[in-house]
Amino acid sequence: MPLIEIRNLRHVYHAGTADAVVALDGISLTVDRGEFVAIVGGNGSGKSTLAKHLNALLLPTEGEVFVDGMNTRDRGALWEIRQRVGMVFQNPDNQLVATVVEEDVAFGPENLGLPPAEIVARVDEALRVVEMAEYRQHEPHLLSGGQKQRVAIAGILAMRPQCLVLDEATTMLDPQGQREVMETIQRLNRDGVTVIHITHAMEEAVQCPRVIVLADGRVALDGPPAEVFSRVEELERFRLVLPPIPALAHRLRRDGLPIPEGILYVEELAGALTRLVAEGAGRGRAGDGTH
C-alpha cells in the first residue's frame, strides 16, 4: 500500500459561486514509502493546494486522498493523518512558537501528551538530525533563515512523521539557507523519511529522484528528472525555466553539438564535452596519418 494515494482529486475554491476557481482538476497519483518527490509548476498550477490535501488541511471537492490507508475525509482519523504527514511552510517565522529552540521543538510532542522523558529524547534526536543541537538554548529570532527552517523541520520530526511535505520551504531563504535545508531533507530521506518537496526552484527539483510537473491543476509530467527535463518544449509551454545545466545542454544540442539527452549536472556536461573534444582530436590524427 502506498503511503499517499490520490484518486481523481478535484478542488474548487468558492464552489457553487460566481467566484469558483478550479485549483486541482482530476489528479491521480501515488507516493510510495521512502520516496523523494519534487512537485513543480508555475503560479496557479495547484502546487500549494495539493500540499494542503496531503495532511487534510483541505478536503477534496471531488475524489479522495488516502494517507497510510486512511481517508482524509474521515474526521476521526485526522489526528493520525497529521502525525504521519508533517508540513513545513514557506515562512519559518510563522512556524516557530516558543522563545527558545528546544522549547519550540518540544511543542508538538507535548501536545501529543507524551511523558517528559520521551519528549526530551525526541527533542535531542530531532535537533541532532537537523544538526542544530548546539543551538538548543538559542532564541529562534536570532537564527538565520536556513537555521529557522531546520528548527521547524526538527519540530515536525519530533512528532515522528512518516512523510515530510515542504511547501515552498526554501523560497524565502538565501542560497546558503537553501543548501542547508536541501542537505537536511536529503539526509532525512536516506534515513527512510518520505519527502515531498514542493518548489519553484528547478535546481532543487533536479536533486530529487522523481519530479511531478503540475499545470492547470493537472499532472502534466511525472518521472525521473533526466526524463522530465528533457521535455523542453513542454516545460516552456508550462512557463517553467529549465535548470541551468540542462538548459545549457539543450542550447548546445540546438546549436548542433551531439550532447546526450538527460544531462543534469555540470560533471556530466563536462564529461560529454571532454569526450567530444577527444573524439575530434582522434579524427584529426587519423585524417593526417599521425599515430
From TrEMBL:
GO CC terms of this entry: ATP-binding cassette (ABC) transporter complex
InterPro entries on file: AAA+_ATPase, ABC_transporter-like_ATP-bd, ABC_transporter-like_CS, ABC_transpr_CbiO/EcfA_su, Co_trans_ATP-bd, ECF_ABC_transporter_ATP-bd, EcfA_1, P-loop_NTPase
UniProt KW Nuclease keyword: no
Entry keyword set: ATP-binding, Cell membrane, Membrane, Nucleotide-binding, Translocase, Transport
Pfam families: ABC_tran (PF00005)
Membrane topology annotation: Peripheral membrane protein
Domain ABC transporter: 4-241
Gene Ontology molecular function, alphabetical: ATP binding; ATP hydrolysis activity; ATPase-coupled transmembrane transporter activity
Coiled coil stretches, renumbered: none
Family annotation (CDD domains): ABC_cobalt_CbiO_domain1 (cd03225)
SUPFAM superfamilies: P-loop containing nucleoside triphosphate hydrolases
Gene Ontology biological process terms in this record: cobalt ion transport
Main location, first listed in the record: membrane
Subcellular location: Cell membrane
Function: Part of an ABC transporter complex. Responsible for energy coupling to the transport system. Probably part of an ABC transporter complex. Responsible for energy coupling to the transport system.
Homology family: Belongs to the ABC transporter superfamily.
Protein known as: ABC transporter ATP-binding protein
